[in-house]
Amino acid sequence: MTIICSLLHLLVDGLCVCCLYMVASAFSSSHLVGIFLSYNILAFLTQPLTGIMADRIERKHWLLLASVLLLTMACLATSVVVNLRLSAHGVMIVAILLGIGNSLFHAWGGKQVAVKSGNDIRALGTFVSTGAFGLSLGIVFFSWPLIYVFLISICLLSIVYLNLDFRSTNATTTDKMSVHRFSRLFVSLSLLALMLAVMLRSNLGETFTGGIPKSACLILLIGFLSMLGKMAGGWLVRYMGIVRMLVLVVLLTVVCFVFRSQGLAVLLLGLFAVNCTMPLTLYLANLVLPRHEGLAFGLLASALIPGYLLAIYSL
Questions:
Q1: What is the DSSP letter of 45?
Q2: How many CA atoms lie within 13 A of 89 on its CB side?
Q3: Considering the entire predicted model, what is its pTM?
Q4: How far is the C-alpha of 179 from the C-alpha of 114, rounded, in Å?
Q5: Could you count the other beta carbons within 10 Å of the beta carbon of residue 73?
Q6: Which of 161, 122, 164 is nearest to 11 (CA)?
């Protein structure tokens, strides 16, 4: 089930960026900032709200179904906007449908993977990793055939997942999540520290790659290394422990940051190292917010945007 969620993550992010680039390619550059900014605000900054929904709603599958419906409507809206050359309001409709659909999916997926795996950091890393590669695939190969393939695959995998989920729910109701009770002050300070760490990671990731002239091959390589780093982070923590893994990753990141002018290989190694920390922050957020894994996922996702915007501004 974690593998299916991870594949869905790749497909959803790839579909969203495909639709955005199809719309952007049909209009002048004046529309680009608006559509991408609107999408990112809705996709990331609304995740604390959709995360709360994922925590409170009893039948989680409705979130996935709503996400698939919105993404399907976004694909139809993209076709209408591009073919009829509807700008302004039409472009915003596409961004809104994609953003909300994406936000609902991430809240649902983050909650499901955390609960079904018992907050296994390897499963968390696998789930969060695939979106980066999906984005790179959508950026490089955006086209109508790819949109159709992504959308049909999302629908089919969603059906498979829901079938497995209903079977597992009927078979057992045991909750594998261990619950730790913390004071509200500790929870608040811990979440603030984790969100600041996510902002710093987002800023560093964009710093390592933001100034590089990107060919198609390099975009795919960046997406693949980001995915590999997030996936590897969970396994490193599992077999090295949190402290040793953090020491290794921080030292490697600092060295790559200091010597980032020495070439592309150093920048890519730094990108890999930075992404290794992603499953750890999510794992720790789930620990301090037991039974609220959707909110934990949403808060960390929303922290990505400030770090990204600061990096873009500085570049």
A1: I
A2: 0
A3: 0.90
A4: 13
A5: 15
A6: 161
Q: How far apart are the first and last CA of the chain?
A: 40
Report how far residue 30's alpha carbon sits from residue 78's, in angstroms, rounded to the nearest whole number: 18
The structure tokens listed for 282 are 């999510």
Instruction: Kindly report the number of other CB atoms within 10 A of residue 182's CB atom.
Output: 14
Sequence-ordered alpha helix ranges (H) in 58-88: 61-84
**Dist. CA 120–CA 179, nearest whole Å:** 14
Mean pLDDT for back-to-back runs of 10 residues, the chain (315 residues): 94 94 76 79 92 91 94 93 75 91 95 93 94 93 94 95 80 51 82 90 79 83 93 92 92 89 88 92 92 92 78 58
3-state class (DSSP) for residue 28: coil
Q: Amino acid identity, residue 40? A: N
Backbone angles phi, psi at 283, to 5 degrees: -60, -45
Q: Look at the chain and count its residues.
A: 315
For 100, the token pair is 């909300």
Q: Residue 284: count other Cβ atoms within 10 Å of its Cβ.
A: 20
Helix (H, G, I), strand (E, B) or coil at 147: helix
Look up residue 60 and give its DSSP letter. T
The three-state secondary structure class of 274 is helix
DSSP structure class, residue 211? T
Instruction: Give dist(CA 20, CA 268) in Å, integer.
Output: 26
